[in-house]
Amino acid sequence: MADRQFPAIRPTTPSSILQKLRDHSPDSTHLVGVATLVISGGILLLLSGLTLTVAVLGLIFSAPLILLSSPIWIPVGFLVFVAVAGFLSFLGFGVAVVSAVSWIYRYFRGLHPPGSDRFDYARTRFADTAGHVKEYAREYGGYLQSKAKDAAPSA
Fold it and tell me: pTM for this one?
């Protein structure tokens, strides 16, 4: 056992402990940041509590007035809702029209807006289908005319 060597345990001196504390302690900017965070958080918490208290007290004191005047508020609220919904719908349709006109303008100018390739594909499909229907109508129309002549030879 005497041949084993153990690492030497260094005695800790008070100066080395203080040095470690200084190395791990926050500097003044961190302390100011934490103090600012605590103070602003406390102020915001106080203001939110004050806001909640005022809202509840306002509801308590205005509840009788709201109940007595509710026959007026319900139709007025409905009219305001319909007016706002109509105005927003008008704006939405206006935006849709402007974007559609812009897309059509860019399409006819040859700028290839997004989706123009699908539009061209659909247009060619419609044209092909119309051509096939026209050919079928000619063939079937000739068939019907020959049947009509067979049924009424004087016609």
Answer: 0.42
How is residue 11 annotated by DSSP?
P
Query: What distance in Å separates the CA atoms of residue 33 and residue 41, rounded to the nearest whole number?
Result: 12
| Separation in Å, CA 86 to CA 60, 72, 81, 92, 154 | 34, 21, 8, 10, 66
Give the Å distances, CA to CA, from 47 to 53, 100, 135.
10, 49, 80
Q: Is the pLDDT of residue 147 over 90?
A: no
Judge whether residue 52 has pLDDT over 90: yes
Residue 119 CA to residue 101 CA, distance in Å, equals 15
107 close to 113: Cβ distance less than 8 angstroms: yes
Smallest CA-to-CA distance from 80 within 93, 95, 66, 72 is with 72
- For residues 113 and 104, the answer to whether their CB atoms sit within 8 Å is no
| Burial status of residue 138 (CB atoms within 10 A of its CB: 0-12, 13-18, 19 or more) | exposed
Residue with tokens 């041949």: 3
Quickly list H helices, the chain.
Answer: 14-24, 28-68, 70-108, 116-151
